[in-house]
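CORE FACILITY INTAKE
Project code: CF-77B
Contact: R.S. (postdoc)
Sample description: multi-component assembly, two entities in total
Requested service: structural model of the whole complex
Turnaround: standard
Below are the sequence entries exactly as provided by the requester. Do not edit them.
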Amino acid sequence: MQELRKERLDRGVKVRSESIYAISSLKEIMFIIGPGLLLAALLLILPLFVSSYWQGALKITGVYVLLAIGFGFLANYVGLVSLGGALFVGVGGYLSGGLNYFFDLPMIVTIPIAAVGGALICTILLLPALPLRGVYFAIVTLVYPMALSRIIVATGAFRGTDGLPGLERFPVGIGPIYLIFIVILICLYLLSRLVNYEDFGLVLRGVKDNELSIKASALHLTWYKIQAVFIAAFMGCFAGAYLTHLYGWVGTSLLAQDFSILPVAAAVVGGPGTIFGPLVGAFILVPISEAMRDYGTLRIVFYAIILVIFVVFWTEGILDYLKRKYEQFEHWVEM
Amino acid sequence: MNDESILKVKNVSKSFSGVQAVDDISFELSKGDVLGIIGPNGSGKTTLINLITGFLKQDKGTVVYNGEDISKWMPHKIADAGLVRTFQFMRPYHTLPAYKNLIPPLYSKRASRTGLGNLGDRDAVAIDILEDIGFERDTRVPFKLAGTLPLGYLKRLELGRCIALKPELIICDEVFSGLSMSEIVSMVPLMERLQEEGITLIMVEHRLRELFRVANRVIVLSFGKKIFEGFPEEVFEDEKVKEAYFGGEDTYVFK
């Protein structure tokens, strides 16, 4: 019997665009920027065509998307497995909520302050853990939100379990959706440029591949990790501040583990090879979770099943699979 | 050869939970020297390199580089001062194309200070460096993922990472080991060229014949102690060295 194997070859335009820029036609330019444009168009059109119930779900999806992108960036491009989603959301949320509640600042001021200031606070909190790698770093990031929520409950800071009520809220309608979607698009654009084309991004990818070589290249390893964590924390803290002003309330539920765990699942489903993967994963998982709201905690089971299926049978993830199909020919050749 | 001292290692010791890996080693290195460090497996060669380059902290002793005590410096600061190293077990950024492996060093402050880092397009500089050190025979190789490169290229890539920093002193941890004869033959001129460019070299090696072509001084380590220092020709005249390598018998060595 004749044996065949599948051969994969990169499309010419991919090869040419990867290293040296020799793009000659509009068609090739579209090949490269097309997927990004399509994604942007989808995100911008989607809110117009969904019911008001699902508009609410889209806002929550947006929050998780930002966390998932941040997780994917740190895990796949810097080598830091961060379960700090809850920490970022909590710090960002409490910061913007606190500023609004105690100082009566409007949210147009509190959200940017919370995003930048919160990212600073989170980075400083994680500083001692930065020399750690892999699961050890993950454990530290997981412990912080737990500890913070216990501290808030025990000391009654920020009014303890009651939380801070009556905060300024976003106006009803699709405006807030566009706010977070546009932030997502900007983050995606900047991050994918960073990791694919910028020398700084290459250094970060070097940190993931090989910390010792970074040190031997006269680069301050921890400084680069600090900057990477700051970027991810910035997105997470913005998401937290957004959530605060979405609900008009701040409480310890902002430090819940959901914000840490779901981004991991989203990144697994989406695939590790791109910045966009976690976004796709979050857009699949969060609406599913929303649709199964009636089943209560049972939806965790569905989650777990999806996660197991992907981890065991399709580790590549959705977007990496699509990317491969998009960028490569496949054909059968004789062995 | 001028007598200006570039590196002084004074009474450096390091033990790992009771095992004395490096025991009271001292030596001095002048600018332009090529020092070979040899010794049986486990004699502390790599540990000594790690101590000099800051990847390990010594228990005792000092390392003086260009007149400054660098014993307590972080590895990146030592590299920034121009004392760089290769790794015995190559450490490429395996998910990046080969030439992108040189971007991190070119991005460093030292590279922009010494010139290669601020020539504009770092990609082009990286490819130039790679072609200069033996990637020129196949123009596709620099674009392949570093994780897929054969050993010989990885060793060169390690050297390329050092060269991108325009170093004053390179410590090579077994650049010849694991290479085929023809790869070694093409590697020796590269080392000689580095020497001609005025770069001081410390080479830790097991391939003695090739090492002695390049080195003008040799240190022999055994169980963490320096048992010999002198010219390459004298090494195997020395009784202690013979004992360390061959258990004291008079053996035909290498030719």
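Facility notes:
- Residues 119 and 291 of chain A are 32 Å apart (CA to CA).
- The mean pLDDT of chain A is 86.
Invoice: internal transfer
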